[in-house]
Amino acid sequence: IPESGHKYYLQFTTEDYKSRENVGSCLATVLYPKTKSPPAVNIKCTYTKDQKQIQEEDNRVYQKIRDQTKPIIGNNIPDSYGNIEPALEPVWALAVAGSSYIMWEKSTENLGYFMAQVKSVKQWIRKDDFIEFDYTVLLHEIPTQEIISCHMRLTWLPGHPLKVKYFCASENQGLEYGSGMESGSAAGILHERGANF
User: Fold this and answer.
1) How far is it, in rounded angstroms, from Cα 175 to Cα 170?
2) Which residue, 38, 139, 141, 185, has fewest beta-carbon neighbours within 10 Å?
3) What is the C-alpha to C-alpha distance for residues 185 and 56, in angstroms, rounded to an integer?
4) Directed axis angle between helix 89-106 and helix 51-66, to 10°?
5) What's the Cα-to-Cα distance from 19 to each of 16, 55, 56, 81, 181, rounded to whole Å?
6) Separation CA 185–CA 159 (nearest Å)
7) Residue 25, exposed/middle/buried by CB under 10 A (0-12, 13-18, 19+)?
8) Which residues have a Cβ under 8 Å from the Cβ of 182 and sit 6 or more positions away?
9) Cα separation of 46 and 28, whole Å?
10) Rounded to the nearest 5 degrees, what angle is found at the Cα of 107, between the Cα atoms of 143 and 169?
11) What residues pair up with 154 in beta bridges, in sequence order?
12) What is the Cα–Cα distance from 151 to 176, expressed in whole angstroms?
């Protein structure tokens, strides 16, 4: 669009991060404006997985975390061989969901991100039913090949949007702050500005 920017029409499928099973298909339009403002995104998805089944899986992940007798602490997930301890798989799943919000917000028309590793994670004990974690995640920036370190605080309870606050540091950009709430089952993203830890 000559006066506005570049508009893209996308069709893609979503998959379960663990089983790689197709769980839905989506159509999206993305307009990257000529200005430095964020892209305008419109996504419509049809899910092949039953919403009740998704909720049951969310509850299983939640219970695995809640059933721990001590706060969960971990480092280097996955390890240098690509392995994830079974006890840390739910923590990894939440990191994937939370970091997807960061990658979504930081991506541009020319830059994309993949989560490379959870460098560290620590669970906070809460008096309510929510679970809360502090993560340091490493994001792989494409095409620069730079590794970006981000601190992420994640709060979640099944049936509620995933809440994510973060700040990222890179060699070239210094600190960047952001926050938001993301549904852990890809039902949508809600934005909330400011990241005060």
Assistant:
1) 7
2) 38
3) 11
4) 120
5) 6, 16, 16, 20, 25
6) 9
7) middle
8) 97, 98, 100, 101, 161, 162, 163, 164, 189, 190
9) 12
10) 85
11) 133, 164
12) 10
- In sequence order, the β-bridge partners of residue 168 are 150, 176
Is the pTM value of this prediction over 0.85? Answer: no
DSSP characters for 90-143?
A: HHHHHHHHHHHHHHHHH--SS-EEEEEEEEEEEEEP-SSS-EEEEEEEEEEEET
Q: In the chain, where does DSSP find H-type helix?
A: 51-66, 89-106
CB 169 within 8 A of CB 197: no
The residue type at 145: Q
The answer to whether 71 touches 125, Cβ cutoff 8 Å, is yes
Q: Are strands 73-77 and 147-156 parallel, antiparallel or unpaired?
A: unpaired
Order of strands, sheet of 112-124, starting from the edge strand that comes earlier in the sequence: 73-77, 112-124, 131-142, 147-156, 162-170, 174-182, 189-191
Q: What is the pLDDT of residues 141-191, one digit of tens each?
A: 999 999 999 999 999 999 899 999 999 986 555 445 555 544 444 333 333
Cα-based distances in Å from 190 to 97, 120, 131: 14, 26, 19
Whether the Cβ atoms of residue 117 and residue 66 lie closer than 8 Å to each other: no
Q: For 50-59, how does the pLDDT look when each residue is reduced to its tens digit (9 = 90+)?
A: 788 888 888 9
Unique residue bearing structure tokens 């602490």:
73
